[in-house]
Predict the 3D structure of the following.
Amino acid sequence: MLSVEPSQTLSPRGRTIVLLTCFLSVLVAGLDTTIANVALPSIQKALHAPVSGLQWVVDAYTLVIACLLIFSGSVADRFGRRRVFQVGLGFFSLGSLLCGLAPSLGALVAFRALQAVGGAMLNPVAMSIIATTFTDQNERARAVGAWGAVAGLSGAGGPVLGGLLVSGLGWRSIFWVNVPVGALAIYLTQRFVPESRAASGKRFDPLGQLLVVTFLGPVTAAVIEGPRHGWSSPFIVALFVLAAVSVSGLVVIESRRAGPLVDIRFFRSPAFSGAAIIAVVALMTLGGFLFLNTLYLQDVRGYSALHAGLLTIPMAAALAVCAMISGRVVAARGPRPALVLAGLLLTAGTGLLIGTGRETGVWYLILAYLLFGAGFGLVGTPMTNTALSGMPRDQAGVAGAIASTCRQTGGAIGVAVCGSIVAGGSAGFVASSHIAWALLAGCGIATVLLGLVSTGRWARARAERSGLQLGTQAMEATR
């Protein structure tokens, strides 16, 4: 889809302010995917929450974003990116304010979902705003690179900032801090960001959107609630059946629809399918890592939220450094070496944590955090590169949105599965967490294997053929 150019020509200063405004949005949205983890023990004590309740505090946010990412992008294309961006900032800020005032666990989970409705409108729309603001290819590449760096740093810095806020001002402050930042971003958007929209907006696909929700929601709910209700209970079985019916319906209906919400044809490319699965398993490791590590450091080791946050600085630093290195590795060697090394490092980091106990040395933890951070920092760029391999340029945005949905889904599943393992274990948190860490190490191994398969000669050739077919079909559809 072609984009209508912004209504005014921006000066270099104006483009810089637009970029900084997008930075603010990705900063608060990125922080909120990880910042809540370090506050979980405090929330558990204040609201008398079980482990499943803590899982919902995290997953209510990531799951709603996963369900609405593609839809939000299409709404922005049709009704105007600035308008939708401001609405998203408004919902996010209101949800943050209400989260900080939540009187109960149920209210907190509901307000986290409201927060996520706004969050789903931020990142994909911000990328579209950047693309239409920076028309020069080199400027756009630099702007997108800087935006990606801020996104990575915001997610990695969440536990550190969360530890500072929880220790100094209490757990509610991790939500309140978003409100002034959101208000500033709304003002800057209204003042400096020109309106733009797609020349021909994508048609709405309400049935496709419903099927996405009834697939992702029940799967996550079943995994979280399984230990409490019993895996063979009618409620849990019904959730899994609903998810299976929904994903089957999604494949059948979307493959026959013109302009579907989820274009099933993308998955004919082994490179895209492999990258989508890598996105799920790699983000499972991050979601599971943050959830398990927070409970381990604070509940098992007795560290304060600040101490726990500071201990994760090596992970954040390694992630930031390797995220910058990853782009150069991919440019010089292609995605395969970076993906394989990322998977090996993720496996090593989580594998070391299988042996943690109450007396594990801090140096051992830091080594594991460094390896894990380095692996996760490396995985993002080659994963995206592989997903877009062979795709026509006008399909890259939709393909990227599907890949982003897979990332959010993986994070939600990681929290759900690891939380269920430790909640259902009868031997205590430490022993049960060893099983969860082993599962995450397996995700690292899967990243290596999928990286090898999806970047091989056969996969690249199939991706090129699939891309040519998509491009031809798109041209025929416009005639």
